[in-house]
Amino acid sequence: MDMMKLMKQAQQMQAKVQQMQAELEEAETEGQAGAGMVKVTLSGKGVMKGIVIDPSLLKEDEKEILEDLILAAHNDAMQKNARMMDEKMKTATVGLPIPPGMKLF
Length: 105
What we know:
Layout: H1 3-26, E1 28-33, E2 38-43, E3 48-53, H2 63-92
Antiparallel strand pairs: 1-2, 2-3
Helix pairs in contact: 1-2
């Protein structure tokens, strides 16, 4: 493989990764728990942007249940984020000679 072609591919990959990172800044995913009684919204970068809690859960004796539901909703959103990132990465790196398992960010 000639060096010029390799450099061009590296530049293309860098541009695609930068575009993907910008898209992730704008993207949001929502995780849910308790049949939608707790919803957590995350940015594509994993920053929590919002949380919605059904008022019926705001009882002192249900504090631990609420905490567990918040964690579960957050984990659900994080898993959706990971899947979204994987899909974007596959799209961005189509046709580029990247070794299997290599993480770009």
